[in-house]
Amino acid sequence: MTIAPNLVAQILRLRDVEKWRVGTIARQLRVHRDVVRRVLAGNRAPVHPSPLRRSRIDPYRPFILATLTKFPTLTAARLHAMVGERGYVGAGSHFRHLIAGLRPRPEAEAYLRLRTLPGEQMQCDWGHFGHLQIGRARRPLMAFVMVLSSSRQIFLRFFLNARMDSFLRGHVEAFAAFNGSSRVVLYDNLKSAVLERQGDAIRFNPELLALASHYRFEPRPVAVARGNEKGRVERAIRYVRDSFFAARSFTDLADLNVQARAWTDGTSADRRWPEDNRLSVRQAFEAEAASLLALPQQDFALGERLPVSVGKTPYVRFDLNDYSVPHTHVRRTLTVLADEQWVRILDGATEVARHPRCWDGHAQIEDPAHVQRLVERKRAARVHRACDRLSAAAPASATLLERAGARGHNLGSITAALLRLLERWGAAALQVAILDAIERDVPHPNAVRLALERVREAAGQPPPVALVLPEHVVKRDAPVRSHDLGSYDRDDKDKTDE
Questions:
Q1: How many structural domains compose the chain?
Q2: Which residue range is the domain that position 13 belongs to?
Q3: What digits encode the pLDDT tens for the residues 346-373?
Q4: Are residues 145 and 263 in the same domain?
Q5: How many Å apart are CA 486 and CA 237, to the nearest integer?
Q6: CA 451 to chain CA mean position, Å
Q7: Has this prediction a pTM greater than 0.90?
Q8: Residue pair 140/127 in contact by the 8 Å Cβ criterion
Q9: 329 shares a domain with 201
């Protein structure tokens, strides 16, 4: 250990001028007393460490080095067992500590600086930025980041998922922000880009190929385990975390994206361009813009499309929520076409329902018209069932209802009244009474009731009694215990005796 010259000067001055003792100098300068003594003795040569004492592992060191050279990833536990078979008696914990210093390290790999021509390449990737709680749903907050490799201009857009429709929307909005696309877009081996890979054989996602065909760019995945090939987007995501997202507050996703766009157009674009310190990223992008591919005139069709099944209730399940459909489409398979604002439900090419998209979870989004039509249909079904019962018991009821409807009477109340008369008087009597009311041209339940009463009185019969009494009548009519009449006889005998 070499003592610094300034420390030597301080020690000598404090000893010779201030007359301090060795302990005082050591405490004030926060050094060891031996250092002070060595300086005062004039011995300021470096202190060489004492030779290492012999270790138990030394006889086995050649065998360990040879084994690790042949099997670099062999575990220390296995090595300890192997040297134990050869006579080593040391503890396993100390042995692992020694092996950590003997294990050969892989040689550091050097990389060439990658340079790209203006407009030649973009790099694209997702970044995960935690979660957002929206109602009862916990949504992942994903950042879609695209970087122009030459100018380092960044496009940043946040989504609540990393599904394919969001992936494609990020591309379309990035191309619109750059006002052009590059000839090559570089990806990691994520499923949105590469479905399967066997060596050099790559099967791209067909939806990404449709996007590439529309914008005329070449999708190109990096080699496996070669993240350095897309290091510019990796650094851009890290830059977004540190410079934009850290300690940032926002109200919702829309507010966060507005702030992200302002940041990419401002702070991010004004940073130094790595290729030339005299230029900013904004200036480099302005020079690169002329080399980008022109955008097509027609927009690319966006939106998540998937088939959904409608059960016995008129709702479809999509993204944790239920959306209503017309009741005429139950027990069928429909198609959902969704974006960030709307959920459209299609039957073939015909749109049968449209709802604002809900990002909550376990919610039921309804169109009041869908519910109202179902209620009306159910009410009509109940009326039809009652009419069918009446028609079967008293066929003349159909004529009476037809005439009552022509006069504007309430058919529901008439049907209910006739059903009550049917239960009380029976089908045969009701049929005769309805024919009498029709003959008198009075299509109303009161006329039917009067006809029934006239027939009963003419026959001298008592009024009909319902076989089943209402529940409140049954509870009110409690049984009465008869009184013992013998008490009256005793009272009369007593009065006679008097």
A1: 5
A2: 5-40
A3: 988 888 999 999 988 888 999 988 888 8
A4: yes
A5: 107
A6: 69
A7: no
A8: no
A9: no
